[in-house]
Amino acid sequence: MGSISRILIIGATGYIGRHVAKASLALGHPTFLLVRDATASSKPEKAQLLDSFKASGANILNGSLEDHASLVEAVKKVDVVISTVGGEQIASQLNIIKAIKEVGTIKRFLPSEFGNDVDNVHAVEPAKSIFELKAKVRRAIEAEGIPYTYVSSNCFAGYFIPTLAQAGLTAPPRDKVVILGDGNAKAVYVKEEDVGTFAIKAVDDPRTLNKTLYLRLPANTLSFNELVALWEKKIGKTLEKVYVSEEQVVKLIAETPFPANIVIAISHSIFVKGDQTNFEIGPDGAEGSQLYPDVKYTTVDEYLSKFV
Amino acid sequence: MGSISRILIIGATGYIGRHVAKASLALGHPTFLLVRDATASSKPEKAQLLDSFKASGANILNGSLEDHASLVEAVKKVDVVISTVGGEQIASQLNIIKAIKEVGTIKRFLPSEFGNDVDNVHAVEPAKSIFELKAKVRRAIEAEGIPYTYVSSNCFAGYFIPTLAQAGLTAPPRDKVVILGDGNAKAVYVKEEDVGTFAIKAVDDPRTLNKTLYLRLPANTLSFNELVALWEKKIGKTLEKVYVSEEQVVKLIAETPFPANIVIAISHSIFVKGDQTNFEIGPDGAEGSQLYPDVKYTTVDEYLSKFV
């Protein structure tokens, strides 16, 4: 475990990619970022982010998933490739696999996952198809014999915790909370910075080679009822709880058009079916907080305290 | 225009497909529905819907986009193919194109569109990629020389009007409304039943052959400010208006994970960029209410009255 691989990140200005890039730089990896338009000025936020990565020592490379030569050139510079492309670009990762296969020297590939373990879900459409697309990418990686780690980091805390998953809010509710299903299925909430740290910890670790890295952080594995109770305790107030039965959730998905129906269908998988915790981690998996007990992750309890 | 084509609908139990199927049956077309599992009992709502279509004379065929033989067999039975598959299955429509090409007798294909005109959008990611995927399907249809009509029906009224596009609500707001951009870009709201009627009207119409059918219903083409004003007049109350600048909207998209970011990015295209109305309909397009002035569509004014 003494090696410090050179890492290429594809999608480093994205929602989770920025945290993976920060962790790669913070943990001392020579870090390369493949960027569609490094001189883009139309998005000031993106340009600022790239400037800060450059200041931290990142190497910015121009290229894209659609430019095979640029991909090959970038892949040749590194030992490890991490894709953090957005959900709309999952299928395009087949282009990365092709480039990795062609270069032939990559020691580890982490495709864009960072959610439920797509081989262990009980989802309805449209989430079903979306999970299947990620599984298809997994199968392509395995078929090519590319060394991999799949990072199943479960819920992004920064998305779910500030509103307790209530659409349209900007802070956790203080009167009423809508709960999908019976509220007893456990989900896992991981702060985005911690997702980045755990992912980078795994890249040079033989214990995660050709395995799934699950983040089931003990302090952050909570049922929705437990999550609400934690919040209620903090604000010293009991919320009105509106439970939505699975049948009603499935009906709501059918009666909501794309793309809003995806949001509900993924919530159904997480909160009704319990797909983040309803299976045992097998020999093809390893749990992040057990592998890296030194990582001091942010707990849901700490996160919620910011909103009291 | 005397012919009554036989129509195959792929995706007839979906959000918009059910309305297209109803319209096909109501307007007297021999109607065939390709269904993944016609005996599926796990979804009572879907089974009920299929039963009602059967009672109205629809022919249910078993098959799927992944089963080429089933597609070819279904396509052989009809003159017109309408796809209403969900947004997560857009790319899989290449399989329909392949089957239509193989059969060679289809007089018109309507791919799954039913939104913005994807050749006239100014979207940011992830909406950009999603629109591009629909455009790619258009180019594949044209490359194969398949006769087509693209239905750009703009906003589903049933999704946007009941909440005035405010996340988390179940009725239009009575206190505060969030408005993306300056609220002056005009969008078009079309009730789902009317989308179905206009789409079916177009299938045997030579005026829509190899063209885009735009729905820019005069009574329903409104800026967000006009929409809010209409609601305010109905309830006799002025709402607090929170305007979100384009810069803030773009930042919010970047700070929201997939898939919720898609919802905001599509709203950015519609409500900030005005992509439903910021171009003239050219010679490759035709407008629905002008072609079919006999269709008595539901107006936004009538729709809003239900919530007073």
UniProtKB/TrEMBL annotation, chains A, B:
Residues 5-304 form the NmrA-like domain. Keywords: NADP, Oxidoreductase. Pfam families: NmrA (PF05368). One of its GO terms (molecular function) is oxidoreductase activity. Gene3D superfamilies: NAD(P)-binding Rossmann-like Domain (3.40.50.720), UDP-galactose 4-epimerase, domain 1 (3.90.25.10). CDD domains: PCBER_SDR_a. Belongs to the NmrA-type oxidoreductase family. Isoflavone reductase subfamily. This is NmrA-like domain-containing protein. It comes from Picea sitchensis. The lineage of its organism: Eukaryota, Viridiplantae, Streptophyta, Embryophyta, Tracheophyta.
